[in-house]
Known about the structure:
Elements: E1 5-8, H1 11-22, E2 25-31, E3 37-44, E4 47-53, H2 63-66, E5 72-76, H3 80-90, E6 93-100, E7 105-111, E8 117-123, H4 128-143
Parallel strand pairs: 1-4, 5-8
Antiparallel strand pairs: 2-3, 3-4, 6-7, 7-8
Helix pairs in contact: 1-3
Amino acid sequence: MVIPFLxxxxxxxxxxxxxxxxxxREIARETTPDGRLISGRLRIGQSVVxxxxxxxxxxxxxxxxxxxxxxxxxxxxxxxxxxxxxxVAAGAKVVIPLEDQYWGERHGHxxxxxxxxWSLATRIRMSRAEKAKKQAEAYAAFxxxxxxxxxxxxxxx
Length: 157
């Protein structure tokens, strides 16, 4: 079993965001006397996600400290539209809109307020013709050096 461990600034706020955005159930929370999160564990669907605030001397940094992350978390759910709406309403920013994709998923990409990237998806049925059309559009975009349906998030600057 692999359990992601997310580094964040604002650990207790992150716990609350993930509960609100993804329906996560809190398993454990350990904080310092001043309220910083030493370790938190959440259950999202059948998976466990751990997180903590960043402390001096840590060998990891929060995405907000470097402006990006090298990891994207994938959340599969039966009702992706409901999950998507819930996450966006909780404060996630849309990076790639939720759409039916050529590989047979309804899929979109969001950025949470703590700098972590999430893809939300569910398997869908689509006709061969629809799949071929979407695949041709995507491959044409890739050949032009574009990411299919990519829309960069608006800058807060």
